């Protein structure tokens, strides 16, 4: 059996027990019923701005069992990287946002840290990361948010120009940063949220944020009633019918809606395409089948207060593919007009998991 296959088999059937013993956040953040002690929770927190050297190993094939295959559902595999670093705080990456060219990135770690840098390409394929820097997320008083009990679990990120929103899962709060005031040194302001957000489960709360930009839809507000709205998705906050709860914050139509939950998938992240199509990254985990992920497409125009929204699956993968705990998704459009999806994984700071950066072209 190859080393690759051995690692995947072991991850599939034994990662949970060992990861728990290693005091990771639990494999795929699925099983913790109680918050971890604060000292352990901030073990890998970023304490101050620092340059980070990140090594990148290419992933030539998304499906090792069939190296000729590049098409997976509606996605075409472009390239991937396994990212490693000697810096202790590198890992736990739970959300990512790219610039319009898909080069500069802003990522958030689930232990209260920013990571910025540039993706280096060769012939359209990712080959490495340059100029990586880590910095702590700061609160309104200018101190790292990890100094507050349970405020370290930063799981989601959204960007609207210079404004960056970060969702904190354990306390179900949202912070807003104005990057025109110091970039990652900016101070976060608490965003008022609906009462339902504060009632989400502690470890299944805010997991994805999406901003519907106002500028992009000027003159089209009759077709885009959510322009200027922050959409917040829970990982597994369930309504009375067992569907996933989400919230419309700000904008002209604030309120709550639901995403139909099927096959026991939970929400990991989401991204809004220029077409007005909302893509939701989902995952599930069991000791029998291991990790599964999928991407669903939901029309933005179907979202409204009180709505139950649903949409088809565009892509699905399991441990037979080069995946891990995929927690972040973003999109950019190339100069050739191709829509490229970028996915990143949260390794939970576990030696059994990996930080993966994957890119696909949306084929249809």
Overall, the morphology is: globular
Poorly predicted ranges: 1-41, 217-222
Mean pLDDT: 88
Helical fraction = under 10%
Alpha-carbon distance between the termini?
37 Å
**Percent in strands:** 35-45%
Number of helices: 3
List SSEs in N-to-C order: HHEEEEEEEEEEEEHEEEEEEEEEEEE
**What is the radius of gyration computed over CA atoms, rounded to a whole number of angstroms?**
19 Å
DSSP strand count: 24
Q: Could you say which structural class the secondary elements and strand pairing correspond to?
A: mainly beta
Largest sheet: 6 strands, antiparallel
Structure commentary:
A hairpin with a 2-residue loop joins strand 7 and strand 8 (125-136). This protein starts with a helix and ends with a strand. It has helices spanning 3-21, 38-41, 195-198, and strands spanning 50-51, 55-58, 71-72, 75-84, 93-98, 104-109, 113-122, 125-136, 154-160, 163-168, 173-178, 189-191, 206-211, 230-238, 244-249, 255-259, 266-272, 277-286, 290-299, 308-309, 313-318, 326-333, 339-345, 355-362. The protein is mainly β.
Characteristic terms for this protein:
364 residues, mainly beta, 6-stranded antiparallel β-sheet, 3 helices, 24 strands, globular
Write the layout of secondary structure elements.
Layout: H1 3-21, H2 38-41, E1 50-51, E2 55-58, E3 71-72, E4 75-84, E5 93-98, E6 104-109, E7 113-122, E8 125-136, E9 154-160, E10 163-168, E11 173-178, E12 189-191, H3 195-198, E13 206-211, E14 230-238, E15 244-249, E16 255-259, E17 266-272, E18 277-286, E19 290-299, E20 308-309, E21 313-318, E22 326-333, E23 339-345, E24 355-362
Parallel strand pairs: 16-20
Antiparallel strand pairs: 1-8, 2-4, 3-4, 4-24, 5-6, 6-7, 7-8, 9-10, 10-11, 11-12, 13-14, 14-15, 15-16, 17-18, 18-19, 19-21, 22-23, 23-24
